[in-house]
Design a protein that fits this description.
Helix 23 packs antiparallel against helix 24. The chain contains 54 helices and 17 strands. Strands 5-4-3-2-1-6 form a 6-stranded mixed beta sheet. A 3-stranded antiparallel beta sheet has the order 7-8-9, covered by helices on one side. The protein has a 3-stranded antiparallel beta sheet with strand order 10-11-12, covered by helices on one side. Strand 8 (about 115-120) and strand 9 (about 125) form a beta hairpin. It is elongated. The longest helix has 21 residues, at about 160-180. The chain is mostly helical.
């Protein structure tokens, strides 16, 4: 043990030495008031080869101690150290007795912590530089190495030969380096890690490391000679710039040693070689101990200073960090770990840490969201006895809240003995930030009850809490308190009041507060403009901007962002372009947020090219910019471009966020891009967003809309968290697929798991009931809606009307319609559609007239529904009047309306007008083509239908199942048997359309009309699915036409088996027997019909006179207007 004389401060220095060959010491600093167990060690390794001073924890490595150090005297080590030294010495003796039993890991070790030698069987480990290694180790190890690795050290398999080869290769490289240093790049001053080489050849890219174990022992000496010999240096790799830097380093070190108190000592706290060891307090010049340009005497002189003042660590810590300024500076520079390490050192040395230093640390933890480090600071505060300090407690509450630990924040708040306005504001803000606005408001009321008056910050925080949960009544109460407290004149508070009213939907109240403000800043204007924009009142927002300019208030980037959102919300393209010009003149175009808002505005206004132009000109693009562009393409129906933009985004290394994935998944759902959606799902899993609730819900929706209901259910079941949106997405998926029972089962499971359904859930469930005609379940839902007090709004009422209509209860549907307090075009459309579905076209037109009288404007869906009614009753005049209305209303460009017009004209027998509408269409979909082909089929124009099919395929439009039904019908009505057979065969083979029951019915009709009844029956028997009654009725009709009794009887038996009450089957078979002269069979069939209780439905015809459609039923002798004088 080496000891020194006590220092003036009452402390003493102890120096433990166990390896004189390396001069490895451990300093212990203590005072007379603390036990030896609490000493703070400062390890110092002294080596003649390594002039290094680099602390590990609080360690120093110094060169040999100066000779004039009489204060040091060697004593015996402690018993524990002697025991450890004996163990290590015994291991080394075991090693040298048989080195072949040990793996030599010196070349393979990845870091200094890895052992140099490891026993092959017992796994014992040895480190050459262990401070307990015996003094004779280095010389004996050198002797063993000189004997040759093949004789003594067995390293690892085949490594002995590799060692000698690598050493020779490295020696040759160093010889090449010293022969011409100018051919090598010197990276010693620039390298940031020991992994990077010290020298790299300029052409061959060879690399050299000075401290490599393969380097020859003479490398250090020759390099030192080159540095010290200025003439040699200038001839070699040195340059005038290096010479200037050498002189600069000399000057800085001289300044340091002249007055070290002017320099911050960062050796104990630096965590990276990038940070300087010493930094000047005023000029911020830095000094690095490992800089190769340092004068050769730096480390020895620094070591002498360290040894002479070694017992004054506490003094050093106090001088360096005592007032906390250095810690505060580290926090400001983002060096949180270094700052925390410094404070821990101060606490360990029982130094007083200022409160503002702890506050700086907590703020640093808050900025970095570093909860673990924040808890360490909390521990230091408790250890220092400051846990009851209100100021620090408030900072702790804020730190815990913003780091996501609300429970810890509340716990800290509860232990503060005496609260003030700061601590109350901190906890209120914590709950508000975590979305618990109700609790934040309750805490505000508790604060008032304790008699503590809120300040302006408190009011701002609680108003924001009210705004987040749209608590208008509570917000109004806070407003009254603000008026009473006299804070209404404060601009910051008043701005928040305006924001609260706007976000609660009371834009008039927000405007009233805004108008009464004596002083308004740009934030005031931004808040009210943003409020109007959020309410969809874009015109009012733009008008406020004009008023803002008149009052000479200069807009900022936020102003332009909210204005562009206002333009986007109302598609105000011209105003958006004007704003773009203002932005360019104001210099805000380079702002990434403003440019992103421009992209969004142009995209939502339908100008995707302008959006892309802005996007391309941006020097900087963040994820929001990419999201705006992707959203724009999606809104414009350009799914491929949206997905292509995503690929480009990844190529430019921009990390997508959850908004990106949500938008892209919606695009996949919109365009049924199933495979791309699955690829996105894989990317989402890799990115870690699958656990996000919004992303999970969108995944379920995407799979459901892409008809992958099993995949949707799988994602749903894997979700860790589910909300009502998750359940709605799954129920909607089942309803869309016509799986009403599964949708209703999901609803039952939803209730069992305690999830409360909302209005959207009920609407979706009503649709599920409608698709499977589940009347009883629909009525139960209706009763539940009434009991729950849900508002029967337009959407809910329309869903009920649709459910009752599709379940055949048209009167119940009309009752719901009549009971609705508010009706619009959506509810009227639902009722009209219900009438048309039930074949009540007259009532549908009557409701349309009532709709016009009540001032409800018909939309494109109204027109499409009514055109369907005209088509089913051949009401051409009504249809033509609707066509005129469509042209006047601008609906002629609507694909759905145009398809309905084509269908109406074709079914009314006016195929020319149908073709004219088709030719005038600017955009056609597969429905448009299919409807016109069906029109030609109904008119018996088979060849024209086939020509249209060929044209459709030439224009790149792929026919679907409905198209082929129309084409086969056309062939059937025109007797094109061969063409029909060919189309049926190629439909599946060449075009990938699997025939369904409708296609088989068409083929039966085609063959039946041609008299090929045997072939028709054969094709039925070969159907992959069970034929329905329509297929057998088609064959039965063909048998009647061609008088085929046997096939007719077989077809009849199959029809009656499937539909016992089908009166048409009895009539057709009776006609077959009558035509064959088998009147006894006719009588028998009539008797069977009577016994089965089947009544013949009379035929019905329609005629249109003066815009009135009249129906005439067979055998009817009266008419409602018979005898009417008009």
């Amino acid at each position: 043990m080496v000891s020194s004389t006590p220092t003036g401060g009452g402390g003493c220095l102890g120096l433990c030495c166990k390896n004189p060959s390396r001069h490895h010491f451990v300093f212990f600093f203590s005072s007379h008031h603390s036990p030896i167990q609490s000493l703070f060690p400062l390890r110092i390794s002294l080596s003649t080869n390594e002039h290094l001073l680099s602390p590990s924890s609080a360690s120093l490595t110094l060169p040999s101690p100066p000779k004039n150090c009489p204060a040091l005297a060697i004593e015996s080590s402690t018993l524990e150290e002697e025991r450890q030294a004996a163990i290590i010495e015994g291991l080394w003796q075991e090693f040298f007795s048989d080195p072949s039993q040990w793996w030599d890991k010196r070349l393979d070790k990845g870091n200094a912590d890895a052992p140099d030698f490891k026993h092959k069987t017992t796994n014992k480990e040895l480190w050459i530089n262990d401070r307990f290694s015996p003094s004779w180790l280095q010389s004996k190890l050198a002797t063993v190495t000189q004997q040759g690795p093949q004789q003594s050290l067995s390293s690892s398999p085949s490594s002995a030969r590799r060692i000698s080869v690598d050493q020779e290769s490295r020696r040759q490289l160093w010889e090449e380096f010293f022969s011409d240093p100018s051919q090598w790049w010197d990276n010693r001053s620039d390298k940031k890690s020991s992994r990077f080489p010290d020298f790299i050849h300029k052409t061959a890219k060879k690399a050299l490391w000075i401290h490599s174990r393969l380097s020859p022992p003479w490398v250090h000496a020759r390099l030192a000679a080159m540095i010290q010999d200025q003439e040699q240096a200038q001839c070699g790799f040195s340059t005038p710039e290096i010479s200037r830097r050498v002189a600069k380093m000399l000057q800085l070190w001289q300044e340091y040693f002249s007055d070290p108190s002017e320099w911050w000592d960062n050796r104990f706290i630096k965590k990276s070689p990038k940070f300087p060891d010493f930094r000047h307090k005023r000029t911020h010049e830095g000094l690095w101990l490992e800089d190769w340009l340092n004068p050769p005497w730096v480390k020895s002189k620094l070591a002498a200073v360290a040894i002479q003042s070694g017992g004054e660590l506490r003094s050093w810590v106090a001088n360096s960090f005592g007032n906390g300024d250095n810690v505060n500076k580290l926090c400001q520079e983002g060096q949180l770990k270094e700052a925390l390490h410094t404070v821990e050192l101060m606490v360990q040395e029982n130094l007083q840490v200022p409160n503002n230093t702890y506050a700086s640390l907590l703020k640093g933890c808050t900025r970095r969201r570093a909860l673990a480090e924040g808890k360490r600071v909390h521990g230091l505060i408790v250890r220092s006895g400051l846990d009851s300090d209100v100021f620090l407690g408030s900072n702790l509450v804020d730190m815990y809240a913003k780091c996501g630990s609300l429970l810890d924040a509340r716990e800290v708040f509860n232990v503060i003995p005496e609260h003030n306005v700061i601590s109350w504001t901190a906890i209120i803000s914590a709950y508000a930030d975590h979305g618990q606005g109700e609790e934040a408001i309750n805490l505000f009321q508790q604060m008032q009850q304790t008699g503590i008056a809120p300040d302006k910050v408190t009011f701002v925080v609680v108003l924001k809490a009210c705004a987040k949960i749209a608590a208008l009544e509570r917000g109004t109460q806070v407003h009254s308190t603000i008026i009473e407290s006299g804070f209404e004149s404060n601009v910051m508070v008043t701005n928040t009041i305006v924001d609260m009213y706007a976000k609660c939907g009371c834009i008039e109240d927000a405007r009233e507060v805004f108008n009464k403000m004596n002083e308004r800043d740009v934030i005031s204007w931004n808040t009210i403009i943003g409020g109007y924009a959020q309410q969809g009142l874009g015109k009012e927002a733009l008008a406020l901007y004009e008023q803002m300019k008149q009052e000479d208030v200069q807009p900022d980037n936020v102003t332009y962002v909210v204005l562009l959102k206002a333009c986007a919300s109302i598609a105000a393209l011209e105003q958006g372009r004007q704003l773009h010009s203002h932005i360019i003149r104001s210099g805000f175009e380079r702002n990434v947020i403003v440019s992103s808002a421009l992209v969004d505005m142009y995209a939502k206004c339908g100008c995707i090219e302008d959006a892309h132009d802005v996007f391309k000109k941006m020097n900087e693009r963040d994820v929001v910019t990419w999201n705006a562009m992707i959203t724009g393409y999606t809104l414009q129906g350009l799914g491929k471009e949206a997905l292509s933009m995503y690929e480009q985004m990844k190529q430019e290394a921009v990390q997508p966020n959850k908004v990106t994935y949500v938008v892209l998944l919606k695009a996949c759902a919109k365009f049924a891009a199933r495979e791309k959606g699955k690829q996105l799902h894989s990317d989402i899993i890799r990115s870690g967003f699958e656990s996000d609730l919004v992303v999970g819900n969108t995944l379920v929706d995407m799979y459901a809309k892409c008809e992958c209901i099993k995949d949707a259910r799988e994602v749903f079941e894997r979700m860790n968290e589910r909300d009502v949106v998750s359940w709605n997405a799954m129920i909607a998926g089942y309803a869309q697929q016509g799986l009403g029972k599964e949708a209703l089962a999901m609803y039952e499971q939803m209730k069992q798991e305690g999830m409360q359904p909302d209005s959207v859930t009920h609407v979706l469930l009503l649709r599920a009931c409608a698709c499977i005609a589940a009347l009883e379940e629909g009525k139960q839902l209706h009763s539940h809606i009434i009991r729950s007090g849900l508002v029967l709004d337009v959407i809910m009422g329309s869903a009920l009307i649709d459910m009752y209509a599709k379940c055949g209860c048209i009167e119940d549907a009309r009752q719901v319609f009549n009971n609705m307090h508010e009706r619009n075009v959506v509810s009227c459309n639902a009722m009209i559609a219900g009438y048309v579905q039930q074949g009540l076209e007259k009532e549908a037109f009557a409701l349309y007239e009532q709709m016009k009288q009540e001032g409800v404007q018909a939309d494109n869906f109204t027109c499409a529904i009514l055109l369907k009614a005209c088509a089913s009753t051949a009401a051409l005049e009504h249809g033509m009047q609707l066509h005129s209305y469509i042209i006047k209303s601008g609906f002629e460009a609507d694909v759905i309306v145009d398809s309905a017009l084509i269908d109406m004209y074709a079914k009314c027998g006016n195929i020319e007008n149908a073709r004219r509408v088709f030719n005038n269409m600017s955009e056609r979909d597969v429905v448009s083509w299919s409807v016109l082909i069906a029109g030609y089929a109904q008119q018996g124009l088979g060849k024209e239908a086939l020509t249209l099919l060929e044209q459709m395929q030439r224009e790149g439009m792929k026919p679907n199942e409905v198209t082929y039904v129309s084409v086969l019908c056309a062939c059937s009505h025109s007797g094109l048997v061969d063409e029909g057979r060919q189309i049926f065969d190629s439909m599946c083979k060449d075009h990938g359309v699997t025939p369904n029951v409708d296609h088989y019915a068409c083929m039966v009709d085609l063959l039946g009309r041609a008299g090929c009844l045997v072939d028709a029956e054969d094709i039925i028997n070969k159907m992959p699915t069970e034929p329905d009654a329509v297929v057998w009725m088609t064959l039965l009709g063909a048998a009647r036409n061609h008088g085929h009794v046997e096939i007719g009887r077989r077809a009849f038996d199959c029809v009656v088996k499937l539909e016992p009450e089908n009166d048409s089957a009895y009539v057709l078979l009776s006609n077959i027997y009558a035509a064959a002269g088998r009147m006894d069979e006719v009588a028998k069939i009539r008797k069977e019909m009577k016994d089965a209780g089947v009544k013949e439905t009379p035929g019905c015809s329609w005629i249109e006179i003066d815009n009135q459609v009249h129906a005439f039923v067979a055998d009817e002798e009266t008419h409602p207007q018979e005898g009417d004088p008009s």
